[in-house]
Structures are given as C-alpha cells and as structure tokens.
Design brief:
Layout: H1 2-12, H2 16-81, H3 84-91, H4 97-118, E1 122-129, E2 140-142, H5 152-156, E3 162-165, E4 170-175, E5 187-193, H6 195-198, H7 203-207, E6 211-215, E7 221-224, H8 234-237, E8 243-246, E9 249-258, E10 263-270, H9 271-276, H10 279-322, H11 337-376, H12 380-396, H13 400-417, E11 423-425, H14 426-443, E12 448-454, E13 462-464, H15 469-478, E14 487-496, E15 499-506, H16 513-517, H17 529-540, E16 545-551, E17 555-563
Parallel strand pairs: 1-2, 12-14
Antiparallel strand pairs: 1-5, 3-4, 4-5, 6-7, 6-10, 8-9, 9-10, 11-13, 14-15, 15-17, 16-17
Helix pairs in contact: 2-4, 2-10, 10-11, 12-13, 13-14
Organism: Paenibacillus lutimineralis
EC number: 2.7.13.3
Protein name: histidine kinase
Length: about 575
C-alpha cells in the first residue's frame, strides 16, 4: 500500500511534459507490446516445434536405417543358421581327421567367408558347437566357452535371433536348430558387428549436440554417447517423457524403436541448443518490436516537446515575474486553451504592474506627505531663534548645561528638517543621531553608555533622513530605561556588498518572542521601527529594511540595510 502511494505521488509530482510523454508512450506501447509479445511467442513456439519436428524426423530416419541394417545382418545369420550343410557339420560326430578337416574348410569356412564378403561390417562369425569339431581360429569354437555368458541361457530358450552388447561390442546370436535328428547338438551362430559402422546413421545427430542412449529389452545399455554417465531411470522407463531436468540443464527427449532388435533409442538434447536455431528469426522479430518501441519513444518525445514548448515559455516567464520582473516575454496568437492562457497571463501582468505602480506611488507620496507634515509642524526660524536666545542667556549666567542642551537641540532639528529634503548625507544623519543621543544622556543624567563604530567610507553617501533616530529612541525607551543600571547602546555602520548596514545594539530587557514576530507587521502607533522598515522597502525593494534579533533579559540587535547611493 505504501509503495503504491509513493508511486502515485511520484507520478503526481512529475512535470507536465513527462506526464504527456508517459501517457503517449503508454497508449502507443500497449498494442505494440501486446502484439509484439504475441508474435514473438508464437514465432518462437512455431520455430521450436519445427526444430523438434525436424530433429524427431532425423531420429526416426536414423532408427529406420539402423533397423534396415540389423535386418540385413539377421538375413545373413539366418542364412547360416538354416544352411543344411552347416547344420549337418555342426551335429555330426567325427571319427576321421580328414572328414573333420573337409567340413571345416569346405563347408564352414567357405560359407562364413561368403557371409562376411556380403557385409564388411561383420567383424566376427563364430560357430559355437557341441560336437567334437576341433577349435578352428575364430570360426569354430567349443560351446563350453559360452556356457557362463549372460546371453547363453536366453539364446538356448529362444528360436529367434537375439542382439546383445557389452562395453565394446554389438553382436547377434542364434541357436542352430535341427529337427531331422532326435538328439541334436547344441550349436549357436555368433556374429559380432562393427559398432561404429552400425551406429553411423546417428553420427549427424551427435555432431549437432545431441546425445544418444540405446537400450535393449532388458533395460541394459547397448550404446551411450557418454559411457560413464549414469542416466536417470525415468529417461528409459517412461518413453512418453519428452522433457527432463538433469545436471542442472533442461533437456528435450525424443524416442524411437528398433523393432528388429527390440532396442529403444533415446535422444536427449539441451533445449537451449534446439531453441538456438530459432533465435535468428526470433531475434529479428524482437528487434522489430524494439525498433517500434524506439520509434514510439522518439515520436512521443518530439510530440510532447512540441506540445509543451509554449507552456515552458509561459512557466519561465512566470518565474521571472515571481523574481520581480514584470516584463512579459511570451506571446501567442493561437486560439487554443494555451493561447488563451498566455494572453490572460499577459493581461494580468500588465494590470498587476499598473496596480503596483499606482500603490507604490501612492505609498511613497503618503510617506512624503507625512514627513513634510512633521517638518511643517516646526517653524524653523522661530525654533532656531528661540534656541539661540536660550543659549545666549544661559552663557550669561554661566549655565553651561542649558547652553549645551540648546546647541544640541539646534543641531538635531537642523539635521532633522534638512531644509525639507528627504535624502541626507550619511555624515549629517550620524550628526543628527549624535545630537539626539547627547540630549538623551543629559535627560538621563548619563545613566547609560554610548559607543560609535562608524566606517568613514559610508559618510559621503546619501540616505533617507530620520532613519536612525527611531532605532536609537526604541533602544532607549524599550530597552535600557527598564534596566536598573549599566545600560549601553552601540551604533555601528559599515559598507558591505555595495550596501550600507547600520546596527543598533542594546543590553536592555529584550523583546518577548511572540511580540518580536509581529513587531514589523503590526500597525504602528507612531513614527517607529515599522515606519523605518516600510520606507526602506518602498524605496529600495523587499530585500532591504530592518531585521531584529532579541533575547529576553539579554538585549536587542536591530539591523538596517539599504543600497549605497551617491544621491
């Protein structure tokens, strides 16, 4: 469930171009994959079945050839077994060496020689006889030599030709029957066949990677491609088995019978070799499917890119608007929904720019009116004359403290009024603050300390007037006045990244976190911090103005930042 939710969210968060591409590919690739998979599966199955059919036909043909060879050998053995001269020679009891020699040379050797000439693959023909014929090479041997063989009792009980094999030889044996005398001798015709020549029809199958197992009716191996291998019993006990897993591989099993000998031929070949022959055509089908998928991917990418290009342009333009630029760079004369969206965005930006300009100008004008109204409340000439008179009379009575207060007030109001100008030199603003600070020190009986740290590099620049005095006033009234003793205010100013940065630090009682968060957002009750902050943002931009950091019972740190300007 969690993985499905994650996948759903990931798809939901994909960009619009990827969603269009994904939808296009999904819709296009479903029939391609379904039809391609069907064609691939059917073609592969057809080719594999055809390969199996061809292999089975080759096996049956090889088995038929082997069966024909065995029938030819059987005819030779039958010819010898039913040859009346050989039957008589094998059942006669000899009393004369000459007679015995005559039968060996003129009857047995002559017929066996003729039989071997008929088929050169017969490596040995032997008459195992129970008569008193002497041993004659490999042609005539006493039957006592085979009494202990495994096939002897089987042959003596049968009237048919039986085929056997040992580890290296394949041979057929048949009992020589004589129904013309009462007590015939036990005689057997033995024919050993060249196994390589006999099994030559299967060579082509083995060269193609197939392996053979030929077993007789008793389940004994007549021939095996791997003589030392132990085969699973299921291979030859159940001829209907067509597949098996053996030695970590999957094998295809084919079966054929040899009726003449009663043998069963099992061909087992790794299925991978059978399917390998079909892979050329199957790989072609697979490549065609991949090519179709690739074409769909390319077409989907080009389509989505073409479709989304105008939306990307609109998004880029929106981003520049978010960063402060109100210039519309994207246009469209299309009548579709995206064209309507682009034109609507352009109209909205134009109206927004007009509204911002209107509000901005009105706010600046309002602030200027407030400043001028504040300045107009004071009659400069009357004020300066009054302060000059106070200073003159204080000097006459040697009241130096009153004289100093009058001079400070004169300097303070002269720099505050600034001849009606809103911009003032930084040096004069510093002078205004210093005058104000000295007045406050006199009023507070020098109960706190003042420190200035002003970089002279900022003095020639201009700034809005009456920006620092509210910061100092706030530090005194809301900070150090509430301390019992040891108050301190520090004013510093420096040039930093083409900006003028003023900092006012006090070690007063600090500001509560809840109050600090809304100090610059709440409606001001006087000409204080928020007023200074709003003036700076309106004149220079939202990234300028005041930042405040404070810790209860530790003090407050107020920073004013605005661009350095020559005028």
């Amino acid at each position: 469930m969690q993985s499905w939710y994650t996948l759903k969210k990931r798809i939901h968060d994909m960009n619009f171009q990827s969603k269009i591409k994904f939808a296009f590919l999904l819709i296009s690739m479903i029939p391609v994959i379904v039809l391609g998979s069907f064609c691939f599966s059917e073609t592969r199955s057809l080719l594999i079945n055809q390969s199996k059919s061809d292999l089975n036909a080759a096996l049956n043909q090889s088995a038929l050839t082997l069966n024909s060879q065995l029938e030819a050998y059987n005819k030779i053995v039958n010819f010898l077994s039913f040859n009346q001269e050989i039957v008589n020679a094998a059942n006669h009891t000899y009393t004369s060496t000459f007679e015995m020699y005559d039968q060996l040379v003129n009857v047995i050797d002559q017929n066996f020689y003729t039989a071997r000439n008929l088929n050169a693959s017969i490596e040995q023909l032997t008459l195992y006889t129970g008569t008193n014929l002497h041993q004659h090479g490999q042609t005539v041997r006493p039957i006592s030599e085979v009494h202990n063989t495994t096939w002897y009792p089987l042959v003596m009980k049968s009237t048919n030709i039986l085929w056997f094999s040992d580890r290296h030889n394949i041979y057929s044996v048949r009992r020589v029957l004589n129904t013309k005398i009462k007590n015939p001798k036990d005689n057997i015709i033995y024919a050993r066949i060249n196994s390589k020549s006999l099994l030559e029809p299967f060579d082509s199958l083995e060269t193609q990677g197939a392996e053979l197992l030929i077993i007789d009716a008793a389940g004994q191996a007549v021939y095996s491609s791997e003589p030392d291998e132990v085969y699973p019993n299921s291979l030859y006990r159940d001829p209907s088995v067509d597949e098996m897993h053996w030695n970590g591989k999957k094998y295809t099993v084919l079966h054929a019978s040899i009726p003449t000998s009663g043998w069963e031929v099992f061909l087992y070949k790794p299925t991978s070799l059978i399917t390998q022959s079909a892979w050329r055509i199957v790989s072609t089908v697979l490549l065609m499917i991949i090519a179709c998928i690739g074409a769909v991917v390319v077409a989907g990418t080009l389509f989505s890119r073409k479709f989304i290009s105008r939306i990307e342009q609109l998004r880029h333009n929106m981003k520049t608007v978010e960063e402060g630029s109100l210039e519309v760079t994207v246009h469209s004369d299309s009548k579709d929904e995206i064209g309507d969206l682009i034109r609507g965005f352009g109209n909205m930006v134009v109206k927004t720019e007009d509204l911002i300009n209107k509000v901005y100008r009105e706010e600046i004008a309002r602030k200027e009116y407030e400043m001028k109204a504040l300045q107009a409340q004071i009659n400069p000439h009357f004020l300066y004359n009054s302060l000059s008179l106070i200073n003159w009379r204080a000097l006459r009575i040697h009241a130096t403290d009153i004289s100093e207060m009058a001079q400070l007030l004169s300097t303070f109001y002269r720099t505050t009024l600034n001849k009606g100008n809103n911009m003032i030199l930084v040096s004069n603003e510093i002078l205004n603050v210093q005058s104000y600070m000295k007045i406050q020190l006199l009023m507070h009986s020098n109960s706190f300390d003042v420190e200035y740290q002003i970089d002279e590099a900022i003095l020639p620049y201009h700034m809005p007037n009456l920006m620092l005095q509210p910061l100092i006033e706030n530090a005194i009234i809301h900070g150090i006045e509430n301390r019992d003793e040891g108050g301190k205010i520090k004013l510093s100013g420096k040039l930093e990244d083409d900006c003028i940065v003023f900092q006012v630090d006090d070690n007063g009682i600090g500001i509560e976190p809840g109050q600090l968060a809304s100090l610059l957002d709440s409606k001001p009750t006087g000409y204080g911090l928020k007023n200074v902050h709003d003036r700076a943002r309106l004149m220079y931009g939202a990234e300028y103005g005041i930042t405040i950091m404070s810790e209860v019972n530790q003090g407050t740190h107020v920073t004013l930042r605005f661009p350095a300007a020559d005028e």
